[in-house]
Amino acid sequence: MSILSDHIESFIKELLEEDGTTDLQRNELAQRFQCAPSQINYVLTTRFSPSRGYVIQSRRGGGGYIRVMQLDLDRTDYIMELVESQLAGGVNMRNAAELVEGLYQTGFIDGGIKNIILAAVSDKALAAAGESRNELRAAILREILVRVI
Question: Does 1 score more than 60 pLDDT?
Answer without folding.
Answer: no
